[in-house]
Amino acid sequence: MTLPTDLRYSKEHEWVRGEGGRVVIGITAHAAQELGDVVFVDLPAIGSTVKQFATFGVVESVKAVSDLFSPISGTVVARNEALSKSPEVINADPYGGGWLIEVELANADELAVLLSADAYAALIP
To answer: Does pLDDT of 78 surpass 70?
Structure first.
């Protein structure tokens, strides 16, 4: 499995794509594969705050219900509303159309504790 090298990763299988003072968050292809077919996603409301490594939502698949953990702290400025009608996009395109939320960073230094693609790849089978 090839991982995008322009992303940072958490040990909980979320990814972050930096875009100025904002970042986009999603789950990795490995996580999507392990979950199986995603059937529902519960995301925080715009204006909500998320804390690094704290739960911010839930993803439900035919196999399990799993918490989503925020790789960084900040304020939710956008959420992928398309997932409410088509959550399976997470399985088909986890690094593109399957993104979850966009967050205004509270502390850009938190990005430094996240993993590179190589470091994340070493954690997954």
So the answer is: yes
